[in-house]
Amino acid sequence: xxxxxxxxxxxxxxxxxxxxxxxxxxxxxxxxxxxxxxxxxxxxxxxxxxxxxxxxxxxxxxxxxxxxxxxxxxxxxxxxxxxxxxxxxxxxxxxxxxxxxxxxxxxxxxxxxxxxxxxxxxxxxxxxxxxxxxxxxxxxxxxxxxxxxxxxxxxxxxxxxxxxxxxxxxxxxxxxxxxxxxxxxxxxxxxxxxxxxxxxxxxxxxxxxxxxxxxxxxxxxxxxx
Length: 225
Fold this sequence. Notes:
Low-confidence stretches: 82-88
Number of helices: 9
Strand content: 15-25%
CATH class of the largest domain: Alpha Beta
Order of helices and strands: HEHEHEEEHEHEHHEHH
Radius of gyration: 18 Å
Number of domains: 2
Number of strands: 8
C-alpha cells in the first residue's frame, strides 16, 4: 500500500511531483527535452520528469521578449502534440520567469502565461525572498490568465541568506507547490565568503570539507530548506 493512501492528513500527500525537474534555456535543447519527456511518458505511462523552459538564464540580455515569445510558442505546440498524453498522466511543462524585481518580469507574465497558460503545469519564480514577492507574482499571473484556465501553482527558488531565513514562511503560502534551493546564486550572494568549491562535489583534487555537501554554510542552508 502506498503511503499516500495511508497518511491521508500529510501535507505532502496533496502534491505528487516528479523527482526530477529538467531546465532548458536554449531552443534546440528545449525541443529535445520535450521530445524526451514525451518518449519516457509513453514508455512508463507517467510523467517521469518535469521540463522547465527558462526565461531567466536562458534569455539573452536585450532579447527577453523574443525569448519569452519563443517559449510560449513551444508550450503551445507541445500542448497540441497528439501524443502528449501517455497513459494516465500528461507531460508536465513549466516556465521559469525572471525574478519579480526584474524589468522583464511583467512582460514574461503577459507573453508566456497570458498566451500559453493552458499548456503549463506550474510557474517557477526565482530569487524569492519574501511572501510579498510571492503575492505580487500571483497577482500578476492570475490577472494574465486566460478565461477558463485553472490557476497555476508556483514553484519558488530559494537563493540567498534572507530567503533561507524566510523559507518556512514562503513554503507555507497556499499557492506554493514546491521550494527548491539555488546553490550557485546562494554562494554568489555571499560575496566571496563561500568559495566556488562549495558548488562542487569533493574529489581527489578538492578538499571534501569545502564542497557543497560539507561546507557549513551551504549545508546549514540546505538543511533549513
